[in-house]
């Protein structure tokens, strides 16, 4: 992700993929080249649509948009939250950190899970009998996976298994979820493993 100011970009417009991000998106698309994919859908954010572009070119499919796939809302959007001079150290912001189980600083986990489940089933319906690719963002993808695996939704962000340009696959047999698999086809490209956007 091209983010020279190192801010939490969240739902802010104008954030595009870096050169490395473009390579990683192509690697993910290449990993699915032989799959029976008939439907491609993306979060409406620009960076997600750019990630979907290599899939569209390779598969000859249009990119549909689903607002349910969007990044989670976050109070700290546009602020620095990494080590050093970050918003988390400023006492003016501490009130939003009062409940990490919800979380109080952003969109509640249960709402993220609910909208992502809707997006998953919509994509599955559009591709019924085939496969779909949905491009979303790290927190919504991880929250969906936790919800479907019956795990608690609040978690340590450093422990998410959801790297940049990774593939979390939800495999159905009929209408029943049979398996969830995970792979990182772009991991060989270097930095970003485990730090999904």
Fold blueprint:
Layout: H1 19-31, E1 37-42, H2 46-59, E2 64-65, H3 109-126, E3 131-135, H4 138-148, E4 167-173, E5 176-183
Parallel strand pairs: 1-2, 1-3
Antiparallel strand pairs: 4-5
Helix pairs in contact: 1-2, 3-4
Count of separate structural domains: 1
Q: How much is the average pLDDT?
A: 90
Low-confidence segments, given as residue ranges, are: 193-197
What is the count of β-strands?
A: 5
Distance between the termini: 8 Å
Explain how this protein is built.
With 197 residues, the protein is α/β, with parallel strands linked by helices. It has one domain: Rossmann fold, CATH 3.40.50. The chain is 28% helix and 14% strand. The chain is built from four helices and five strands. It has a three-stranded parallel beta sheet with strand order 2-1-3, sandwiched between helices. A two-stranded antiparallel ribbon has the order 4-5. Helix 2 links the parallel strand 1 and strand 2. The chain is globular.
Brief overview, please?
This protein is of the alpha/beta class and 197 residues long.
Descriptive keywords:
disordered C terminus, alpha/beta, Rossmann fold, globular, two-stranded antiparallel sheet, three-stranded parallel β-sheet
């Amino acid at each position: 992700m091209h983010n020279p100011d190192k801010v939490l970009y969240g739902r802010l417009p104008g954030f595009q993929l870096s050169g490395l991000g473009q390579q990683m998106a192509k690697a993910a698309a290449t990993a699915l080249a032989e799959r029976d994919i008939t439907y491609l859908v993306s979060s409406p954010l620009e960076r997600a649509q750019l990630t979907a572009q290599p899939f569209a070119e390779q598969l000859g499919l249009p990119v549909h948009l689903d607002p349910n796939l969007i990044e989670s809302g976050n109070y700290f959007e546009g602020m620095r939250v990494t080590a050093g001079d970050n918003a988390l150290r400023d006492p003016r912001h501490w009130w939003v950190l009062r409940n990490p189980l919800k979380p109080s600083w952003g969109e509640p986990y249960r709402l993220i899970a609910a909208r992502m489940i809707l997006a998953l089933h919509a994509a599955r319906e559009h591709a019924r009998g085939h496969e779909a690719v949905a491009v979303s963002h790290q927190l919504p993808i991880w929250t969906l996976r936790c919800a479907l695996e019956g795990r608690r939704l609040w978690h340590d962000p450093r422990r998410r298994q959801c790297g940049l340009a990774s593939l979390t696959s939800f495999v159905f047999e009929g209408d029943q979820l049979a398996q969830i698999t995970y792979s990182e086809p772009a991991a060989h490209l270097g930095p970003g493993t485990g730090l999904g956007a």
